[in-house]
Recover the amino acids of this structure.
């Protein structure tokens, strides 16, 4: 039925990694955080850290992108046990999509209930400024339109349903909580809410591509996150996502500006402390749900 190429890890392979981690740390995280480009400093908010290099974890892919350190950091925040990926995997690194999303099922097997995804993205919405934080309310999955979806291949019911719903992918209660947190911190001025569009990368968009994406309803464009969200929702985790608008997508043929990775990392450094505060407060407000997945 499916071609003979490998289409993913087996349940047993996921278990090997999860069991290795459980044997090597006493942390039992309920919340996972995935750090976007240049946002790895978010891991520093965790106390009582236990850190693993991806290269030391069985089956774990390696980070190859500048701004993605390649470390899995366990720790606590306000007494809550968390795990943080300092570095994620992208399609453009050459990984098949099931490797890109490998850590998500590991999180689920560790007992994680809520996944927080962050990324750096280009702003398509003309009201957005560099440095804005966009709560992700929905996504456009461009690789998925072409059949590159992380759930392609045999479905393992131990993780989730063959046909998972995605109309409620980004938890509305967590978005409400984030808005309250942002207001209390005085961040409302640079808080936005919108639709994130994933492309394969690594080239940034042409002007025509940006105008097309904007017309399709995207507010921000990037190269990650959506694959992780699909797998997280498939296995029943709650998802909260935010994009840091690190650059404005170029939409004018007369513009001199050019998207570049250094600007992306620089904007991350500039907003790091506010993002750390916002995510700390958000985590403080997340209630455990006794591992009842949703
Ligand atoms: O991992 P994220 O999505 O934050 O990284 C974005 C997309 C590319 O990897 C990189 C481009 O600068 O930033
Ligand atoms: N595709 C894409 N990814 C980004 N990541 C950060 N900025 C951008 C951008 O402008 N386009």
């Amino acid at each position: 039925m499916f071609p003979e190429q490998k289409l993913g890890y087996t349940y047993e392979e996921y278990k090997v990694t999860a069991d290795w981690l459980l044997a090597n740390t006493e942390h039992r995280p309920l919340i996972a955080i995935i750090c976007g480009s240049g946002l790895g400093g978010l891991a520093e908010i965790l106390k009582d850290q236990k850190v693993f290099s991806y290269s030391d974890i069985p089956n774990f892919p390696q980070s190859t992108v500048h701004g993605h350190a390649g470390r899995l950091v366990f720790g606590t925040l306000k007494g809550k046990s968390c795990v943080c990926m300092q570095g994620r995997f992208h399609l453009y690194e050459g990984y098949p999509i099931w490797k890109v999303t490998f850590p998500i099922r590991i999180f689920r097997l560790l007992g994680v209930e809520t996944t927080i995804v962050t990324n750096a993205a280009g702003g398509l919405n003309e009201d957005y400024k560099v440095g804005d934080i966009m709560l992700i309310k929905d996504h456009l999955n461009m690789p998925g339109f072409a059949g590159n979806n992380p759930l392609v291949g045999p479905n393992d019911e131990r993780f989730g349903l063959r046909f998972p719903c995605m109309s409620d992918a980004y938890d509305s209660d967590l978005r409400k909580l984030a808005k309250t947190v942002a207001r209390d911190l005085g961040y409302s001025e640079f808080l936005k809410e919108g639709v994130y569009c994933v492309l394969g990368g690594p080239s940034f968009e042409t002007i025509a591509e940006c105008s097309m994406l904007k017309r399709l309803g995207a507010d921000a464009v990037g190269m990650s996150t959506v694959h992780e969200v699909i797998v997280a929702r498939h296995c029943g985790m709650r998802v909260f996502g935010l994009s840091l608008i690190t650059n404005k997508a170029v939409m004018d043929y007369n513009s001199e500006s050019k998207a570049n990775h250094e600007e992306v990392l620089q904007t991350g450094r500039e907003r790091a402390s506010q993002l750390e505060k916002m995510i700390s407060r958000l985590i403080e407000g997340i209630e455990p749900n006794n591992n009842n997945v949703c």
Notes: The chain has one domain: 11-285. The two ends are 31 Å apart (CA to CA).
